[in-house]
Amino acid sequence: MDVLFGSPVVLHHSSETIEITVHKEKKISFLEHITKTCPSLVGKDARFYPTIWLPNGHFQTAYAAYAKFDHVHHIEYDRNLIPTLDGGQFSLDWTPTLAEKPFDDTPTIVVLHGLTGGSHESYIRCVLEILTKPPHNYRAVVFNNRGCAKSQLLSPKLYCAAYTEDLRIALEYIQKCIPKAKLFAIGFSLGANILVKYLGEEGKNTPFIGAISVGNPFDILGSNVSMESKIIGRNIYSASLANNLKNSFAEHEHILKKHPKLDPAYIMLARSIREFDDRCTRVVFGYDTVNDYYRDASSSRFVTKVRIPLLCLQAEDDPVSVREWVPYDECRFNPYVILATTSHGGHLGWFTNFWHPTRWCIKPITEFSVAIIEAENFTVLPNDSIEQI
Length: 389
Known about the structure:
Blueprint: H1 2-5, E1 7-8, E2 10-13, E3 19-21, E4 28-29, H2 30-37, E5 47-48, H3 57-66, E6 78-83, E7 89-95, E8 108-112, H4 122-131, E9 139-144, H5 165-177, E10 183-188, H6 190-202, E11 208-214, H7 220-228, H8 231-251, H9 253-256, H10 264-267, H11 273-284, H12 290-297, E12 310-315, H13 328-333, E13 337-342, E14 351-352, E15 358-359, H14 362-374, E16 377-379
Parallel strand pairs: 8-9, 8-10, 10-11, 11-12, 12-13
Antiparallel strand pairs: 1-5, 2-13, 3-4, 3-16, 6-7, 7-9, 14-15
Helix pairs in contact: 4-14, 7-8, 8-11
């Protein structure tokens, strides 16, 4: 029925949210500010109408994965290659190009991509197409993990859901380039997990003024167990993710095989994402077991520690970021966090319209980004007990 009548957006939040100061006006609560500025999240228009021939999470996810978006959302980037202390590197892709917009104090969106993704992904380009063009004219920079987005791997180490150190290096470099610019963050899927984990680790010390988490798996162990327990999850989603990881491994095998504890032939036999992570990821990052890695990586443990305005956008029929493991209670506990859910949308889907489906999530992502960037300041409510814990 939601295909016909729409899937309403449901907000989950603390009874008292932080205060926002907007253009030197009277302080209002975070929730009230969002209510006034984000009609896609609150009010009569806060409803997602799925494309009628993409009626559930499986169809939405499949379309997001296999549809061709090469003819839309054209974004040009300038690339920086950033070295790491262990001899590796990752890349930063800036848009607009520096020839078009030299470094200045323009508010800047830092974007984190999903598993084996990069700045080329349609779910990134469709958002940046709006935020970097009039009337907003923001700058954006996509943080491409090691070996992603056609960047060369220089050391036998990729990236994982638990590893946040490269993001810190990226932010240090970005701040040197644009020291006076406001920084805002958007993370998708695995990138959302890395972002929220980082935000919880840093608390008030992050340079970001606000952030959005989209399609976050949150509890990596729980979501993996739920996925593997279902036939379609085990044979389609887990297998597809494993194939993507194996393709990435094969692309950089000449470097990765230098790791003394990796067995490339054994890794390439992995049939599930769990088997790949057990044979490769947890070995590279020094975890005793794959469950140990999954527990440490789960950003759900860090939601209560976030200290900037954070929107978490989730579809409850997401077959990858499973509903049962979304940290509803933690989001309701933290006055800095608002969780917005729709009953449909799939994984990084939310496609609407019949003939040429577009992503509905562009609207709330854009509205929230602008609402926080244009706000002047935010503080904790005086009677907020979160700082007393």
